[in-house]
Give the backbone structure.
Amino acid sequence: MKSQRGMALVELLVAIAITGLIIGLPGTAIYQFFAVTESGSRTLTALHDVQNAASWFALDGQMATSANVSSGLELTLSDNSTIEYELEGSGPLYELRRSAGGSEIVLARNVADAVFTLDGRVITMTITSSPVNRWGVTETRTYKVYLRPTSY
């Protein structure tokens, strides 16, 4: 009988390759799972910011009889009360705030830019949300609202 003194180099290389496959494939799958989840979460955050701002913008804009877009947006309602939209904070990201009747709420965080324009009786809001992350997720949307008629 021949005595065995150890493993051959080929056997060792095959064992290392098989171990690498066993560890590498699940490791890659787990990394992809967390990476895709993070990217999707950031996209949803950006969309939520934009859609929340748009919802308030549409509601307030349709109730307003006049608008001023010199700095931010100022809407005047039929009872002469005002609603203001403005960006606050320090760059590169801001918060879009809505002030009405002495109360203030944050409509969107992670706002890179919000531009309001007025063309006749149509107000346009273009808003960009860009949560800070390694994926560079950015959502930009444009919304238009017609002001309430002042007389019938």
User: Anything to note?
Assistant: Strands lie at 64-68, 73-77, 82-88, 94-100, 103-119, 122-129, 139-146. Residues 9-146 form one domain. The chain has one domain: 9-146.
